[in-house]
Amino acid sequence: MAIFDTMSISASGLSAQRRKLNAIASNIANADTTRTDEGGPYKRKRIVLMEAAQPSHFASLLQEQKEKLTLTNAGHLSATDARSFTELLGSGVETQEVREEPVEPRLVYDPAHPDAREDGYVVYPDINIITEMVDMIAASRAYEANVTTIDASKSMYSRALEI
After folding, report:
1. Alpha carbon 13 to chain centroid distance?
2. What is the distance between the alpha carbons of residues 117 and 40, in angstroms, rounded to a whole number?
3. Which helix (H) or strand (E) holds 139?
4. Contacts of 92 (CB under 8 A, 6+ apart)
5. What's the CA gap between 43 and 34, in Å, rounded?
6. How much is the pTM?
7. By 3-state DSSP, what share of the chain in percent is helix, strand and coil, each rounded to 5?
8. What is the pLDDT of residues 120-160, one digit of tens each?
9. Would you say 81 and 28 are in contact if contact means Cβ atoms under 8 Å apart?
10. pLDDT tens, 30-79?
């Protein structure tokens, strides 16, 4: 692994968790929004995370060595080693998309509300504040873990320079 790969992986994690926290904050802020520009109540947003597509420099070097070994003698690698070394190594995370959750809205009887239907019910988004808070705590802990990883990497680089 290159010297700064751990920092770039953790930086991608920081960015992804920041996007996740922004979506959660938006969900909490709009928990009672009954009217949007698209029409209807606000829809809960959810971030879809996936592994980053680009392999690290170390992974590409491993793949090159694997190919060299296979060329010299096919018996160097068994059939179970046939999958790529890049599948074994992480290279960060990226946000694939922001999805709107396809959940049924909740109906609240309030005939005095300006957005009430003819039958007196108001359509509210089905956002559970407790679920959002739990997701927020998990995202903030993941963010803190990535910050700790960056700090540990900086400390190791600093110690290595002192040698």
Report:
1. 7
2. 11
3. helix 129-162
4. 8, 9, 11, 12, 13, 51, 52, 54
5. 10
6. 0.71
7. 50, 15, 35
8. 999 999 899 999 999 999 999 999 999 999 999 999 888 98
9. no
10. 999 998 888 889 999 999 888 876 655 666 666 677 777 666 666 655 54
